[in-house]
Amino acid sequence: MEISNKIPMNRDELGSFIALRRQDLGLRQEDVAEMAGLTAKTLYTIERGKGNPSLHSLEKLLDVLGLSINLTIKMTGNERAGLQ
């Protein structure tokens, strides 16, 4: 599943998005957490926008839900000047 969203998501939005996707697939938190190698408590906190998962954990979780991460990393002009 690919969703094009150029607007950055904050933790609350990401958590809600993950919860909705899980529910749309008819999966329980416990089952998704186990498949992603997370605890149910960790998934619960992520879905509530309170968790701060590592990139690796987030990738595993999204993979279980049929999603993937597409990151764009940009430097501002000030940061570029410091690298020269």
Automatic annotation (TrEMBL):
GO MF, one example: DNA binding
PROSITE patterns per record:
HTH_CROC1
Top-rank taxon of the source lineage equals Bacteria
Name the SUPFAM superfamilies on file: lambda repressor-like DNA-binding domains
**What keywords are annotated for this sequence in UniProt?**
DNA-binding
Listed InterPro entries: Cro/C1-type_HTH, Lambda_DNA-bd_dom_sf
Locate the HTH cro/C1-type domain: which residues? Answer: 18-72
Pfam families (alphabetical) = HTH_3
Under which name does UniProt file this protein?
Answer: DNA-binding transcriptional regulator, XRE-family HTH domain
Source organism (scientific name): Dyadobacter soli
